[in-house]
């Protein structure tokens, strides 16, 4: 009782309160009491409920308010990635999106002439199986566009897709003789694509064509 309330209440006072509540004390062993709660008190099912009943009769106003509160704070240096990913995946799936999983290998030709993803930053495969799988992807964009093209060619143009995945980069200037692997890095990314009809026909609205603002909203 005293540990939950934060104040010492005399044992005789507690006995008097329990008697007034028709709660019988069956046994006492030091600070441990065994009591019998009347069957009609279905709201008293645990120790905390019993302490609440004692405090209600004793009077909340008789419990002093402390001048300060002790609290333990947990420190997290950054949000947990898996937790954030699961939250985002649940949200997207609940809004009609389908998750895809594509190959981390792609073709170097996609990056020729690009300035955002320069060809020299591609992680190259030493013995590629084909020219379509000769570098590691720097972005999820091309894999997503391949999925959109494949579905569109099969007359499935109304798509809402998303993908989580790692992207890989090579920067020769970051390497040192002692740590040559510093030239390689990877980043976790999310790609989302919407094509065709974003919202299907319903009795209270017309079909809504997907646009940039569909994702922006």
TrEMBL record:
<keyword id="KW-0030">Aminoacyl-tRNA synthetase</keyword>
<dbReference type="Pfam" id="PF03484">
    <property type="entry name" value="B5"/>
</dbReference>
<keyword id="KW-0547">Nucleotide-binding</keyword>
<feature type="domain" description="B5">
    <location>
        <begin position="1"/>
        <end position="65"/>
    </location>
</feature>
<dbReference type="Pfam" id="PF17759">
    <property type="entry name" value="tRNA_synthFbeta"/>
</dbReference>
<dbReference type="GO" id="GO:0006432">
    <property type="term" value="P:phenylalanyl-tRNA aminoacylation"/>
</dbReference>
<protein>
    <recommendedName>
        <fullName>phenylalanine--tRNA ligase</fullName>
        <ecNumber>6.1.1.20</ecNumber>
    </recommendedName>
</protein>
<dbReference type="InterPro" id="IPR045864">
    <property type="entry name" value="aa-tRNA-synth_II/BPL/LPL"/>
</dbReference>
<dbReference type="InterPro" id="IPR041616">
    <property type="entry name" value="PheRS_beta_core"/>
</dbReference>
<dbReference type="GO" id="GO:0000287">
    <property type="term" value="F:magnesium ion binding"/>
</dbReference>
<dbReference type="GO" id="GO:0009328">
    <property type="term" value="C:phenylalanine-tRNA ligase complex"/>
</dbReference>
<dbReference type="InterPro" id="IPR009061">
    <property type="entry name" value="DNA-bd_dom_put_sf"/>
</dbReference>
<keyword id="KW-0648">Protein biosynthesis</keyword>
<dbReference type="InterPro" id="IPR005147">
    <property type="entry name" value="tRNA_synthase_B5-dom"/>
</dbReference>
<dbReference type="GO" id="GO:0005524">
    <property type="term" value="F:ATP binding"/>
</dbReference>
<keyword id="KW-0479">Metal-binding</keyword>
<dbReference type="GO" id="GO:0003723">
    <property type="term" value="F:RNA binding"/>
</dbReference>
<dbReference type="GO" id="GO:0004826">
    <property type="term" value="F:phenylalanine-tRNA ligase activity"/>
</dbReference>
<keyword id="KW-0436">Ligase</keyword>
<keyword id="KW-0067">ATP-binding</keyword>
<dbReference type="InterPro" id="IPR045060">
    <property type="entry name" value="Phe-tRNA-ligase_IIc_bsu"/>
</dbReference>
<keyword id="KW-0460">Magnesium</keyword>
């Amino acid at each position: 009782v005293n540990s939950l309330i934060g104040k010492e209440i005399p044992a005789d006072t507690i006995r008097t309160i329990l008697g007034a509540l028709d709660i019988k004390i069956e046994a006492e062993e030091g600070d441990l009491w065994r009591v019998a709660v009347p069957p009609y008190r279905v709201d008293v099912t645990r120790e905390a409920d019993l302490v609440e009943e004692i405090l209600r009769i004793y009077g909340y106003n008789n419990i002093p308010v402390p001048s300060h509160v002790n609290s333990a704070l947990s420190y997290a240096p950054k949000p947990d990635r898996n937790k954030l990913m699961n939250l985002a995946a649940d949200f997207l799936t609940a809004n009609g999106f389908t998750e895809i999983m594509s190959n981390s290998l792609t073709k170097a030709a996609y990056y020729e002439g690009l300035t955002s993803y320069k060809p020299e930053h591609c992680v190259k495969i030493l013995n590629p199986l084909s020219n379509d799988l000769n570098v590691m992807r720097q972005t999820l964009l091309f894999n997503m566009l391949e999925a959109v093209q494949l579905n569109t060619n099969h007359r499935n143009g109304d798509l809402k897709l998303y993908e989580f995945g790692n992207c890989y980069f090579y920067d020769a200037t970051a390497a040192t003789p002692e740590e040559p692997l510093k030239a390689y890095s990877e980043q976790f990314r999310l790609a989302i694509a919407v094509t065709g009809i974003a919202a299907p026909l319903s009795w209270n609205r017309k079909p809504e064509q997907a646009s940039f603002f569909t994702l922006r909203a």
